Queue: 2 jobs
Job 1
Amino acid sequence: MIYKNPHLDKMNNVFNEISLEDEISIADSSNSSRFWNFFQDITIGFNTNEIDFSKPNSVKHFGEIGWVEHRLFLDTEINAFAFTEEHLNYIGLNVGTIFLIRDSFFSLFATPDFLPNVGDKSKESNTIENFKNNYFENLTAANYNQFIPKCITRKRCADYLTDIAIKFIYFHELSHIKYCHTSYQQQNFRLKRVYEFAHITKNVDQHFDDRSMEIEADSGGMVFTLIYLDYLKTDGILNEFKEYHPYVLWIHTIETLFKLLTPHGHYKDYDSDSHPNNFIRTLNIFEHSIKEGIAMKLIESEEQAVELFETTKNLNEIFRSIGFIPQISDSFEANKELLRQYRLRINELKDNEFKEIYEERDEYLKNEIEEARQNAE
Ligand SMILES: [Zn+2]
């Protein structure tokens, strides 16, 4: 009893239009054959392109979000977008985002300093300084694979952390769709593709709302990465790296990801910022992850979570040593207060501006499921 996305041709046309407009190809097996398997592996489960009526979860998931298609764009710049048009959901990821993250984890694990108790660090001779230079070179020259861990266990760990980081980005985008941000943006600002890193001029309140939505999208991305981490743990995949608690590996992934996105980002929000600063974003993610982690039995208690955080201090030292630190910072209290306001604002939006959008989507999806049920094979 499977029903395939009947709008696939239409969605392909939309993606092709974007590709022509931006003059950037969509990755496929013909133009990316060298990396195709890697792309396929890392994006398993990213689309919602069928409803399987034999699986209650498949129907439930579809009922929350609808049809989703993603494409990889052959662009080296770090970026991603999500948008919704006529209830169909589109996500685009630049391959540069995927490569930069993988290459950075490779070059970090190729040093003996990053997560030193994974595998055999004595085999590694890269330096943190090289990691830094390689990172900046990659931003413009995309000169990947200069530093690959020699210890196979460390290389594998780099692959898993990359997986978690890419999933965080995808599910952050998916959360913009799930929580109706994309529909709201399109209705109010006629924004078609909402790129994560693009400057759009809005008024101060609208930028504030955008930052609140980013907080919600981060929380959504966080939940999914913990579910994935739990799967890796339950399946025994993380046994190979058992010197570290799974939650510690996850903290390293999130911290590193945000450093890679903006190594010198200020810990202060400005009126026209599209995203909250990294301090607020990671504080939100980590605070929520404790509750979520306890519910999933990944961690036992808040005390244990705090203890595990203490063990990750070495990571801050690594980034500090190469100047990946904020140039300007607001106080901890000011940032915490701002986070509280973003969270309040998102709840307000949900109760008001988003309400009609949610209701309209629910109605559409109910009809779509009904039609699917009648036509499923
Ligand atoms: Zn976002």
Note: DSSP finds 14 helices and six strands in the chain.
Job 2
Amino acid sequence: MTTAPPAAPERARPDAAAASLGAPARCRRRLLVAAAAAALARPATHACAAVRTPTAAQMRGPFYPQTSPPDDDTDLTRVRGIDRAAEGVITDLDGQVFDADGRALAGVRVEIWQVDARGCYHHVGDAGGDDPDPAFQGFGRTETDAQGRWRFRTVRPVAYPGRVPHIHFAVTPRGGATFTTQMYLAGHPGNDADFVLNGVASADARAALQVALGPAARPGATLAGRFDITLGRTPPVAS
Ligand SMILES: [Fe+2]
């Protein structure tokens, strides 16, 4: 014998609620007004959550570290054991990681990697990287705080043959898949011709990958920029 599933609860009708309380007809209007006022006074749990457009995915590329580097903190301009800062324009980057409902995501691993001021990836696979700046860390990682915030100090990326300046990002939420994208410099004249950036069909999505750098607020840096990342349903792209 099969058991019928329980009937879905009917949405309560206010006038039925009033009748069920045994209220006389003349009082029902007052009850309805009170119910409406109570509903308005209730905190709207999703009022703060704005719908956000997911950040466009970009290829991971071939230069993600093959092994975890010994120095992988958030300051890529300093390498343990080297008594000088990295060459290049020191740049502070920060941002937040959100989901598509606008909720800030805590505990998300954020990793970045890029070329140094000489245009070299610190990676054995970079054929053009035979003279890297030893004072540049090349890669860094952190985790978002309770407000989904992350921060790195690095150098302004430079162009290398075939690509405009960019910084690679890998973003991994707790228990989730890694999302990769690339951040570009707003206003760079080569952006319109870069084959990776222009692999993103939407002009708005391409614009969201381009960050305007301005004067830095924190001592020790020259430039600063903000790059927010929204994780959504963008399908992963091949490396
Ligand atoms: Fe790259």
Note: Strands lie at 90-99, 109-113, 139-143, 149-155, 166-172, 179-185, 210-211, 214-215, 223-226, 229-231.
